Structures are given as C-alpha cells and as structure tokens.
Amino acid sequence: MAGIGSSNYWEDLRKQARQLENELDLKLVSFSKLCTSYSSSRDGRRGDTSDTTPLLNNSTQDRMFDTMSVEIEQLLAKLTAVNDKMAEYTNTPGTASLNAALMHTLQRHRDILQDYTHEFHKTKGNFLAIREREDLLGSVRKDIETYKSGSGVNNRRTELFLKEHEHLRNSDRLMDDTISIAMATKENMTSQRGMLKSIQSRVNTLANRFPAINNLIQRINLRKRRDSLILGTVIGICTILLLLYAFH
C-alpha cells in the first residue's frame, strides 16, 4: 500500500508539472507575440491617425506586459517547487529500483523548466530593449517637432549669427594681415633711415670739404623730404582704407 501511495504521489507531481508546463507554453507564446507587436503598433500609431490605428495602445501593452510577466514568474516558481518535490521523492527510501527512470523523468522536467526560464528572460529583455529604444526615438522626434515649430525665427537668428561670426573672423584675419604689413614696413623704414643717416653723414662731410656740392645736397634733401611726405601720405591712406574695409 505504501508503494502504491508513493507511486500515486509521484504521478500527481508529474501531472502538476505537465499542467504547469502547458500553461507556461501558452503564456510564453502570447508573451512573445505581445513583444513582437509592440514596436510595429507604435510605428502604426505614429504614422496613422485613421481608423486603421491598432486597437491596443502602448500604455495598454505596457500593462499587459507587466501582468503577463508576473503570471509567468509565478508559474515558473510553482514549476520549480514541483521539480524540487520530485527531486526529494527520488531520494526517499524504497525508490532505489526505480531511481534511474525517476531521475530521467526529473531531468527532462528540469530541462523544460530551464528552457522556459531562458525563453522568458530573453523575450522580456528584448521587450524592454525595444521599449527603451522606442521611448528614446519618441523623445527625439518630439524634440525635432518642437524645434521645427519655431524653426522659422530660430533659423533666421542662427543664420545671422553665423554670418556675423564669419564677418568678425574675416575682420580679425584682415587686421592681423594689416598689422603684419605695418610691422614689416616699419622695420624696412627703420633700416632705410639708418642707411640714409649714414649716407647723410658722409655727404655732409663731403659738403664741408667741397662748398660747390652744398647746393646739390640741399636739393637732394628737399626732394627726400618731399618723397617722405608722399610715402607717408600713401601709407596713411592705405591704412585708413584697410581699417574701413575691415569694420565695414
């Protein structure tokens, strides 16, 4: 009688395991369909506002996802408990002769539980990744639409700002070039002034020795002053024109 009772207990555990496995199989199929349709239904809602819009909106799908996740986790916990009871049964006295067959059956149920657990976590992870990506894309699209709604004035202001920035850059570059030219001109004129002073000193020495040359030297000095005035005037005009162009 004890053997019959033990056999009935084992069969009852197997029956519970098969029932839970069947429920999990159906739940996982529905769960997978829900996750697969999530992205396409959101795309449909974004691209169609007519009567063909999917009946299930994303908030409803999110609630269904949470509910089904809890139900599947509960079924997995129940199946795990049944498998543990089956494992305990295989270690009870009097089952040694059937131990090989019992262990084979137990291992098969454990493999099924492992497969269902892996499938559930994989599907759940995919769903969460899709939802996170879709939420991010929705936020980006919202920001783009918000930007487009005020893009007329903003684009005009941005364009004017860029033009002004480019104009300032060109002015800075032109000022740098002007300063470089002025510095080079200054160095050149300083060098020429030194040379002219040396020549002037020698000419004055000759003039003191030869009075006839004095008149010629005076004429040369007058012409040199005139040339200096002309050169200074030209340089001043060019500098003024460059500054006017730079700040125009």
From TrEMBL:
Annotated Gene Ontology cellular components are:
cis-Golgi network; Golgi medial cisterna; Golgi membrane; SNARE complex
Q: Where does the chain cross the membrane?
A: 229-247
Q: Which UniProt keywords apply?
A: ER-Golgi transport, Golgi apparatus, Membrane, Protein transport, Receptor, Transmembrane, Transmembrane helix, Transport
Region ranges (Disordered): 37-60
Matching Pfam families: V-SNARE_C (PF12352)
- Highest taxon listed in the record's lineage: Eukaryota
Q: Where in the cell is it found?
A: Golgi apparatus membrane
Q: Look up and give the membrane topology term.
A: Single-pass type IV membrane protein
**Which GO molecular function terms does the record list?**
SNAP receptor activity
Q: Which GO terms describe its biological process?
A: endoplasmic reticulum to Golgi vesicle-mediated transport; inter-Golgi cisterna vesicle-mediated transport; protein transport; vesicle fusion
Oligomeric and partner information: Component of several multiprotein Golgi SNARE complexes.
Please explain the role this protein plays, according to its UniProt record.
Involved in transport from the ER to the Golgi apparatus as well as in intra-Golgi transport. It belongs to a super-family of proteins called t-SNAREs or soluble NSF (N-ethylmaleimide-sensitive factor) attachment protein receptor. May play a protective role against hydrogen peroxide induced cytotoxicity under glutathione depleted conditions in neuronal cells by regulating the intracellular ROS levels via inhibition of p38 MAPK (MAPK11, MAPK12, MAPK13 and MAPK14). Participates in docking and fusion stage of ER to cis-Golgi transport.
Per the record, the similarity remark reads:
Belongs to the GOSR1 family.
Protein name, per record: Golgi SNAP receptor complex member 1
Instruction: Tell me the organism.
Output: Parambassis ranga
Q: Species lineage, top-down?
A: Eukaryota, Metazoa, Chordata, Craniata, Vertebrata
